Automatic annotation (TrEMBL):
Assigned protein family: Belongs to the NADH dehydrogenase family.
Stored SUPFAM superfamilies: FAD/NAD(P)-binding domain
Origin superkingdom: Bacteria
Name the record gives this protein: NAD(P)/FAD-dependent oxidoreductase
InterPro entries assigned to the protein according to its UniProt record, in alphabetical order: FAD/NAD-bd_sf, FAD/NAD-binding_dom, NADH-Q_oxidoreductase
Biological source species: Paenibacillus thailandensis
Cofactor(s) annotated in UniProt: FAD
Its EC number(s): 1.6.5.-
């Protein structure tokens, strides 16, 4: 009998699970359905470019219908409301209930506001193409307001969090705002772009020399870094810092961290601090018919004490392992263990600058080569999913 495979989430983990499973399973063997809250597969590692205005939405939001939605992979645009792993059911916001033989949970993560007063109500985030468009429109509107009123809060942008998301975003602003200001007749020197980081250093996953390179390059281009100081409160027009300083700003963007998806943490799957615990084959430790990909899962290296970080490259690779293991669940055989390959970490600092380390020997890159390498890794991803798509049909 045809098995029902349900995939929750159309991000890296979900799409790669679907495409890889379809590579091994015919339509007669499995009916595969992706449920996603947007009609697009979003390249979230490039959202900072959409927010900054250097690319348009088409580059980061690929229609799922075109990518996987043929007669062989169904796409349902809806939001998951509840997962009932003991009943093998998923309930959607629309009220539709899906039954499954095998489930993939790949819903990503949520913004963590750490309970900081006023932050959630008064800040924007960068988790989707819609968020990026909102940031872009908001910044333009504040600049127009600044031109009218001269209110400094309209010319001040605060990015909270100096992780990769925050740093790549200020890099885009540093690149694009001079041009936008010129077009509006505003002096770019009037604009202040803050990146506030609570930890002792921004992007601590990089060697010191590359962090210094990033700070120097972005400072020269108009970014002010406040490191070792936490945001403690936000209002519509102010950001309070732990050192007592208050910044007047009408544009607050929060990139201070992520946490497990609330549905995943509370649905009855075995979990650890809101993320599903999984076996080496990426099955839930409590429900072997449920696979978990990307930020929803907490995955430890064999014998390791620290889990892998929640990155796009791991979500993608988890999706591929899960896709193959789904075929084993349906047809029999031996499942693959998840053995990630780390190709490195790259951060763009605008269009023509970047830092990173790549390959098994962690070769360090900076400047244009790093920025081009980041671009190449994006192209590699796009051609990979399109190649899998071609293989599947
Ligand atoms: P993150 O958790 O990596 O960084 C958040 C930063 O915010 C931390 O440095 C933290 O110290 C800081 N912070 C927390 N509370 C704060 C406060 N009160 N005030 C000021 N700063 C505060 O989050 P992220 O940057 O969104 O990244 C999430 C994941 O996505 C990471 O695993 C990252 O590697 C990945 N990512 C990768 C890329 C890339 O590969 N280029 C790009 C974006 C994100």
């Amino acid at each position: 009998m045809t098995k029902q495979i349900l995939i929750l989430g159309g991000g890296y983990g979900g799409v790669l699970s679907a495409l890889t499973a379809r590579k091994y399973l015919s339509a007669a063997e499995a009916n595969i359905t992706i449920i996603n809250r947007y009609p697009t597969h979003q390249i979230i590692t490039e959202l900072h470019r959409l927010a900054g205005g250097t690319i348009d939405e088409k580059a980061v939001a690929l229609p799922l219908g075109k990518l996987v939605g043929s007669k062989d992979v169904n796409v349902v645009v809806d939001t998951v409301k509840e997962i009932k792993p003991d009943d093998k059911q998923v309930v959607l916001e629309s009220g539709t209930v899906y039954k499954y033989d095998a489930l993939v949970v790949a819903l990503g993560s949520e913004t963590n506001y750490f309970g900081i007063p006023g932050l959630e109500e008064n800040s924007m985030v960068l988790k989707s193409a819609a968020d990026a468009n909102k940031i872009r429109a908001h910044v333009e509107a504040r600049l127009d307001a600044y031109k009218q009123s001269g209110n400094k809060a309209d010319a001040t942008i605060v990015v909270g969090g100096g992780g990769l998301t925050g740093v790549e975003l200020v890099g885009e602003f540093a690149d694009k705002l001079p041009e936008i200001c010129r077009a509006k007749g505003i002096d770019f020197n009037d604009i202040t772009i803050y990146c506030v980081e609570a930890g002792p250093s921004i992007i601590p996953m990089f060697p010191k020399v590359l962090i210094e390179r990033a700070v120097e390059s972005l400072t020269k281009r108009g970014v002010t870094f406040l490191q070792g100081v936490a945001i403690t409160e936000a209002t519509k027009n102010t950001v309070s810092l732990k050192n007592g300083q208050t910044i007047e700003s009408n544009t607050i963007i929060w990139t201070g961290g992520v946490k497990g998806h609330p549905i995943v943490g509370s649905c009855g799957l075995a979990e650890d601090r809101g993320r599903s615990t999984v076996t080496p084959t990426l099955q839930s430790t409590s429900h072997p018919d449920v696979f978990v990909a990307g930020d929803c899962a907490v995955v430890f290296p064999e014998g390791g004490e620290r889990p892998y970080p929640p990155t796009a490259q791991l979500a993608w690779q988890m999706g591929e392992t899960i896709g193959y293991n789904l075929s084993v669940l349906v047809k029999g055989g031996v499942m693959d263990k998840f053995t990630p390959v780390f190709s490195g970490t790259l951060a763009s600092l605008g269009r023509k600058d970047g830092i990173g380390f790549i390959g098994g020997n962690n070769i360090e890159l900076k400047g244009l080569p790093a920025s081009l390498m980041k671009e190449a890794s994006n192209i590699r991803y796009l051609s990979h999913i399109q190649g899998l798509f071609a293989l599947a049909y």
